[in-house]
Structures are given as structure tokens and as C-alpha cells.
């Protein structure tokens, strides 16, 4: 679980409600590519061993094969690592006060954006397709007043539950901000009344 001390710009008394990533099924293609990349050099080695037995008797050719295989595996590891990092570090964090979107762009670039919950006007969950319906994952669109989709949760598990939770939290946050605004307005009114009394008293002084 994401720790509060690592939360970007943590607010006072803020609590993490949920942390969401894309459904693991979305990296199935990456796993298939990994398996293919592992099988290909092994298949090439076995083919040469069976049909080109003289190939491995030449030390120079053997050295080239080992060097090429090493470079190939290095490329595969770097390719898979970058795509896994993009998957793992892309996340959406919902707290009791805001929504945070962390998007990893490559290995050394990250974009963080946030939306205060009291600004949320509508949340829509969308699940389309046989696979998404069976595994219950899809999109969550968060909208604000006068704007199009501000945040999009991509291919997250249980999108309907997430949208419902965000709406509940947004309603609670709006009530708290309304109470704060009313309290601030009341304090301002009291201060103005005190100033008016002081001015009136000064005018009445002989």
C-alpha cells in the first residue's frame, strides 16, 4: 500500500482510501512477448545443434553466437523492464480530499496531477466487451463543472465500485467545504459588526 509520507503534497489529516492500477490482464501481451523472446534463441540454438553441428566447432562463430545471444537478452530485459515500470508506476490514488493521477513516462519522467473532490460533479464507469465484462474491469471518467473528462482511470478493476466511492467521498467533501465557507462567512460578519460598533462608539464620544 502507498504510504502517506510518500503522497505528493499530502494535506493535513488526509487519509488514503484506495490505490488503483490497470488490471493485470492488460500486461498479458507483455508476458506473451516475453515467452516468445525466450523461446526464439533457445529454438535457434537447438536448430543449430541438430542441423548445423559444425557451427559450434568453430570457436569464432560460437563466440559470435554467445555475444549475439547476450545482446539479445539484454535488449529483451530492458524492453520488458521499461514496459513493466510504465504499468506498475501508473496509478490513481483516491484520498478523502482529492484524486491523484501519477503517470510514468519512460524510465525517468513522471507526471503528477490532482483534483480536489469537492470539484467533482459526475463520475461515469464504462465496461464494454466480453473480456472486460467477465473480469469486471474498465474505465472510470471523472468530470468537473464546465469541463470535459478531467481524470480517466484506465482499465481498473471494479470500475462501478470505484465510481460510487468517489461520488460518496465528493459529496462528503463538498459538505465539509460548505461548512467551512459558512463558518468563514460567519466570522467575517462578526468582525464587520465589531468594527461597526467601534466606529459608532468613536463617533458618539464627546
Proportion of helical residues:
40-55%
Record field, number of beta strands: 7
User: Structural class per helix/strand content?
Assistant: alpha+beta
The stretches of 5 or more residues where confidence is low (pLDDT under 50) are none
In what range is the share of β-strand residues? 15-25%
Instruction: Note the overall shape.
Output: elongated
Compute the CA-based radius of gyration: 29 Å
Distance between the termini: 70 Å
Main sheet characteristics: 4 strands, antiparallel
Strand order of the largest sheet: 1-2-3-4
Assembly annotation? single chain
SSE arrangement, N to C: EHHEEEEHEEH
Mean pLDDT across the residues is 79
* Secondary structure tally, helices: 4
How does this structure look, described?
This protein is α+β, with helices and mostly antiparallel strands and 206 residues long. Among the domains are: 31-87; 102-186, no CATH class. Helices cover 52% and strands 23% of the residues. The protein is built from 4 helices and 7 strands; from the N terminus they run βααββββαββα. It has helices at residues 28-51, 59-89, 130-135, 159-204; strands at 16-20, 91-95, 98-104, 110-116, 120-126, 137-144, 149-157. A 4-stranded antiparallel beta sheet has the order 1-2-3-4. Helix 1 runs antiparallel to helix 2 (59-89). The longest helix has 46 residues, at 159-204. The protein is elongated. The model has no long low-confidence stretch (mean pLDDT 79).
Amino acid at each position: 500500500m502507498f504510504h502517506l509520507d510518500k503522497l505528493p503534497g499530502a494535506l493535513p489529516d488526509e487519509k488514503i482510501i484506495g490505490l488503483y492500477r490497470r488490471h493485470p490482464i492488460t500486461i498479458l501481451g507483455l508476458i506473451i512477448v516475453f515467452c516468445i523472446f525466450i523461446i526464439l534463441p533457445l529454438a535457434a540454438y537447438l536448430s543449430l545443434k541438430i542441423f548445423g553441428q559444425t557451427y559450434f566447432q568453430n570457436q569464432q562463430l560460437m563466440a559470435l553466437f554467445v555475444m549475439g545471444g547476450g545482446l539479445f537478452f539484454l535488449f529483451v530485459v530492458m524492453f520488458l523492464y521499461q514496459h513493466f515500470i510504465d504499468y506498475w508506476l501508473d496509478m490513481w490514488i483516491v484520498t478523502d480530499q482529492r484524486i491523484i493521477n501519477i503517470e510514468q513516462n519512460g524510465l525517468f519522467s513522471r507526471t503528477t496531477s490532482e483534483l480536489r473532490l469537492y470539484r467533482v460533479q459526475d463520475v461515469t464507469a464504462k465496461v464494454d466487451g466480453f473480456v472486460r465484462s467477465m473480469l469486471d474491469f474498465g474505465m472510470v471518467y471523472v468530470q468537473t463543472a464546465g469541463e470535459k473528462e478531467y481524470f480517466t482511470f484506465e482499465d481498473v478493476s471494479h470500475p462501478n465500485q470505484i465510481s460510487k466511492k468517489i461520488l460518496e467521498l465528493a459529496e462528503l467533501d463538498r459538505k465539509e467545504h460548505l461548512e467551512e465557507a459558512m463558518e468563514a462567512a460567519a466570522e467575517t460578519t462578526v468582525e464587520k459588526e465589531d468594527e461597526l460598533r467601534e466606529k459608532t462608539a468613536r463617533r458618539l464620544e464627546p
